[in-house]
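new request in #modeling-help
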Amino acid sequence: MVTNKQQQQPDIFRADCLSRSTLQLIASEWTPLVVFALEEGTLRFSQLLKRIDGISTKMLTQTLRAMERNGLVQRVVHPVVPPVVEYSLTPLGQALVEPVHMLQSWAYEHLEEVARARMAYDQVDHPPIQEETMTRVQQREQ
Amino acid sequence: MVTNKQQQQPDIFRADCLSRSTLQLIASEWTPLVVFALEEGTLRFSQLLKRIDGISTKMLTQTLRAMERNGLVQRVVHPVVPPVVEYSLTPLGQALVEPVHMLQSWAYEHLEEVARARMAYDQVDHPPIQEETMTRVQQREQ
DNA sequence: CTGGATCCCTAACGATACTG
DNA sequence: CAGTATCGTTAGGGATCCAG
């Protein structure tokens, strides 16, 4: 039975297309960072926590669980005390490395350009952007 | 002056690195879709609204404003009645097209793989994922 | 027509404390 | 060590009405 609501032709513009939710896996604040961190190999929970500056245990757990559920990471629990849990990318997760790297490259390369654009925008009139139209991320950096 | 807190070497793992917030421009639910929509040319607000299924006027406005501020889109207001406002990608925004396309490709190609991973995960024991560990997006698709 | 302003509810998230 | 549980705050975001 492959007769669900899914089209043969995925269409990112349709709200009910699976590709939408698939794309949004990486539209999370942390997923790309986890991908980067695990890119070079297996890491334990605490190692990830240290590597990814600013993430809380809650968000790390949450992100890892979601990624595991979506088949991006593998979670291996070693039944010892104290517990050892290792995370690594699955092949599916590794397939994501390159695309996400391109985003990183873009970010690195255009970092100053973006910064300049912001300053320019903020200086020009632009009736003081009301808080509602700023994302948390943007406010953080003020 | 280039002597702000920014390193010569951007480091995505640092919370205070500009590249972090730059990367997160596209970590928004809607930004990638706006990029896709504007990829082929200029569109008006209402056209974007129609093209991007499921977006609200508020989120579209918000997303466009953020993208404008960050130099990704250009907003042109034609002083006519009724008003005409056109949006298009700046060169900076166009530079984002390719990376984001790779994500789209990844999503399209691995769509079923992800779906299968989810089903497999959900069937196996896995003490019923508590709501807290699911993102809104994930809940939506249940 | 465009899109700003409000209202309001919910989900996201950090911080902290706690357990197998 | 690797999380889970809980609490409190705040941002996200839909719906709606309004103005230029």
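bot summary: Residues 130-142 of chain B have pLDDT under 50 and may be disordered.
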